[in-house]
Amino acid sequence: DPDVRRDMEVALNKLVPGEWTKDGTFLHTMEGEDDMPGHVKSSLMGPSLNIPIRNGRLALGTWQGIYLNEHRNQGGWGGGHARSIIITLQGQS
Q1: Res. 93: pLDDT tops 80
Q2: Backbone angles phi, psi at 31, to 5 degrees
């Protein structure tokens, strides 16, 4: 459901409004106005994810999905910051 992605972005922007950089709530702006909101949002989401695999397939529930989030408007992918994804598999074959 494409609405989930939009709704998650709206919710995170309400939890950590970008205006906090402009109104003095956040002082850290070394990499732009979206820098500190991006730090807080990524802290809320966490840096990693564990996904169970069963019979060679992702073992997700019917309504579960995996989203990769970029919390920067000016930075991030395509904005001058390099991003990488590291996948580590553990378990038995």
Answers
A1: no
A2: -110, 20
Taking the CA of residue 36 as centre, how many other CA atoms within 13 Å lie in the half-sphere pointing to its CB?
16
d(CA 73, CA 32): 9
CA distance 63 to 15: 24
In single-letter form, the type of residue at position 8 comes to: M
**65-69 long-range Cβ contacts below 8 angstroms, 24+ apart:** 65/4, 67/4, 67/5, 67/8, 69/8, 69/12, 69/41, 69/42, 69/45
Which DSSP state fits 63? Answer: T
Q: Find all residues with CB under 8 Å of 32, minimum gap 6, and list them.
A: 72, 74, 75
Query: Full-prediction pTM beyond 0.85?
Result: no
What's the DSSP call for residue 57? E
77 pLDDT exceeds 60?
no
